[in-house]
Design goal:
Length: 53
């Protein structure tokens, strides 16, 4: 079992659900902002645009 930080585990779980269900999306500040931090504690870093349309 790989070791993840809490932020990494949350990001991975959100990404899995976004891939599984097109109705799941991220909404909030600093999500998908070029040069942004990726939301609170970097949880959404890299998730913008990762779900298939």
């Amino acid at each position: 079992m790989k070791r993840l930080t809490i932020a990494e585990a949350l990001r991975e779980g959100i990404a899995e659900e976004m891939e599984r269900d097109a109705r799941v999306f991220c909404l909030g500040e600093d999500i998908g902002v070029p040069g942004g931090w990726g939301g609170a504690f970097t949880v959404t870093l890299g998730l913008a645009g990762s779900a298939p349309l």
